Give the backbone structure.
Amino acid sequence: KERMAIPPQTIPEQDPAVRRHNMNEVALGYTEEQARLEAMRCLKCKNAPCIEGCPVRIDIPGFVSAIAEGDDDRAAQILKRNSLLPAVCGRVCPQETQCQEHCTVGKALKDRDQAVAIGKLERFAADREREHNGGAIPGIQPDTGKKVAIIGTGPASITVAADVRREGHAVTMLEAFHKPGGVMIYGIPEFRLPNDIVEAEIEGLRRMGVEIKTNFVVGRTRKLKDLIEKDGYDAVFVGTGAGLPRFMNIEGENLVGVYSANEYLTRSNLMRAYERDRADTPILESKQVAVLGGGNVAMDAARSAFRLGAEEVHLIYRRTEKEMPARVEEVAHAKEEGVEFHVLQNAKRILGDEHGRVKAIECLRYELGEPDDSGRRRPVAIEGSEFTIDVDTVVVAIGNSSNPLISQTTPELKVNRWGNIEVDEDNRSSMDRVYAGGDIVLGAATVILAMGEGRRAAEAINAQLRDEG
Amino acid sequence: MNKVIAKEQLAEEVYRMRVHAPLIAEERRPGQFVIVQQDTDYGERIPLTIADADTDEGSITLIFQSVGKSTHKLAELEPGDAINNVVGPLGKPTHIENFGTAVCVGGGIGAAPLYPIAQALKEAGNHLTVIIGARNAELMILEDEMRAIADELIVCTDDGSHGRKALVTEPLKEVCERDPRPDLAVAIGPPVMMKFCAGTTRPYEVPTVVSLNTIMIDGTGMCGGCRVTVGGETRFVCVDGPEFDGHQVDFDNMIQRLGTYKPLEDDEHEQCHLEMAARDKEQSRNESS
Ligand SMILES: Cc1cc2nc3c(=O)[nH]c(=O)nc-3n(C[C@H](O)[C@H](O)[C@H](O)COP(=O)(O)OP(=O)(O)OC[C@H]3O[C@@H](n4cnc5c(N)ncnc54)[C@H](O)[C@@H]3O)c2cc1C
Ligand SMILES: Cc1cc2nc3c(=O)[nH]c(=O)nc-3n(C[C@H](O)[C@H](O)[C@H](O)COP(=O)(O)OP(=O)(O)OC[C@H]3O[C@@H](n4cnc5c(N)ncnc54)[C@H](O)[C@@H]3O)c2cc1C
Ligand code: SF4
Ligand code: SF4
Ligand code: FES
Ligand SMILES: [Mg+2]
């Protein structure tokens, strides 16, 4: 009861009016005192329902009580047993619908938002460890003479790299871009996940002896099959993500000033276009921006638009806020920063001026009809409800499908009708020695799920290599 | 890191560079390109066609025109310097077979991407006519190289300072009127030129391949920035192209999209020149003192 009386600790954040003009992280992280207090709210439940909600089954009461006792190093060690990237997951995991949703404290207080802030504590412990301990690396078994190629450098691949390298196998990561990290580097913006954190993890891999080859597009620079047949890799992991932007297929979508969220965020983050004075890659100096979609990607695009100088940002979503796939926290942050939400509306076409540049977007109003296959009520357009919003830029953020580059150049690899690689319960693909995981298997999912897949694939790879002696 | 092995200037603002890239040299086929980026943090990723490759040396050849900030920076490199990032080969290779007779049209710097394609068409047994055009004699590139592979070479300049005084569409029309008419046309150059070449061959129903040079970032189909409308459908130039049926391409939209960052690029370009001028001045001051 005493514990229940401790008020939930709110994490300090940058003021919305200030932060919408800078790229620095929004949430500043708990102070030590806050972290101890928040950790003390945990009841150390015997059955630990929170663990059930965590896709990688972190020992939550274990690490939380370590923080309560002031032993941050132990907390970090417990985290690292199940998750390779706690500093990342603590920031971007959809905690409120995973671990925290099941938390006894939140249930008792009848408010999910009052659950123990597991994610924020995870972040605290991981940040502490990084700052104090400067990235200690795990022990590595003696060389086995086996080698594994990992395609992509997102969270799934990072997990495989660490787990396989630990067993003493040589690991080479192949990344299409000039920088490793996947969506964590090119997609999720700095104000939500600072690049330093991801770079520190990558540096850790390098120090473990993992070789990282950037500027290497499998399927083009080398075929997947050749990695095995010509280059002699004993196993290959495909963690290429879901990098194929979906468009609306509406009139005006190829006008000047229409971006996919991938392009918009890549220009801004990876190419650093927000540093207009230093970066060679341009991005439009937009004033009024419409973002289409309601997921994390849409929130990131909308909030980036302000940081790139927009005065007005309109977020247009077909259903209601309740159905938005974005994290609650991201929606709240976007609203605080001044993003105008247009729910139950959808773009019908984009209008251009005589130079083919975006000048407005025409939308239709929607209402909720009968539930569809997903159980969500289907949005139905209201005929004749057209209206326009003046904008100079449109960002389409309605999701990603799987990028077909590898499957097109690897006919042996079985994919389902959405282009996702088919795998068994050990993340083995239809091709001998080839494993896959993360968004390329799951469709656009989450960092933590990608890591979970990576773990499983790594186990199977290690088993294969062990069996082959 | 890819070392620059050799560099020479071919024409005003046009450079040929041999760059160490053994894996790319091995895999590349005509029609494919690389993306290069000079500075890993702040550099721009720009696509350049692989004009040639040497697997023994492990090198690829790039021919580029210095038109703005990133190509300027590239042009400043000397043999021994390195380009931080070179990725490829990207795009679909050209479909090569013995079509019968082929006419290849290169406008300006377009002669560079055209060269490996013309070479492959010739090797596949086609009767090859090459038409190359430039604004003036100084800007003409690869004339000797083309002459060496073509059965027939037509050279023209806008101002008549070299070869015929004509736009490339003029000889192209004449070639289309021949009997038998060509089985294939390939046109590569500035978008407006490709648009008019496609317009020229259309009435003769000569299948016409164009190689599009839209703005790119990743070159792997991830961003959609390079999209064009072809036959009413959206296609990504970096993975579905760069070559398309010229009679189906919406060139007007493509040209507009190429101008997306014009005002920003022009500022950068000017800044670039001011910096260069300041540097030259500084240098001459140092030298005179
Ligand atoms: C804007 C945005 C915001 C998001 N926000 C969240 C969030 O808040 N919380 C959350 O949990 N998840 C979020 N996600 C989803 C999450 O980022 C992904 O689910 C996760 O990154 C998937 O990891 P992955 O390892 O499968 O691949 P990715 O992170 O997608 O990485 C794949 C890598 O493979 C490389 N690659 C692709 N093809 C090739 C090839 N042929 N050869 C070589 N390399 C190749 C790519 O360049 C890339 O670096 C977000 C995604 C986006 C785009
Ligand atoms: C598949 C392909 C192959 C190409 N091959 C060659 C070649 O062999 N030789 C050559 O000289 N040029 C080639 N180009 C064009 C070359 O990429 C551009 O000239 C270069 O990007 C200009 O960059 P800049 O910063 O120097 O100039 P800027 O002043 O920034 O741009 C000048 C113009 O180039 C275009 N451009 C700008 N940024 C990009 C970009 N990231 N990607 C593509 N185009 C851009 C725009 O239309 C712009 O208005 C090719 C383009 C493509 C798409
Ligand atoms: S990894 Fe995600 S779900 Fe698991 S405990 Fe951490 S925040 Fe919760
Ligand atoms: S459910 Fe909540 S209170 Fe119980 S152990 Fe997990 S975090 Fe602690
Ligand atoms: S350059 Fe990004 S999809 Fe083509
Ligand atoms: Mg440029």
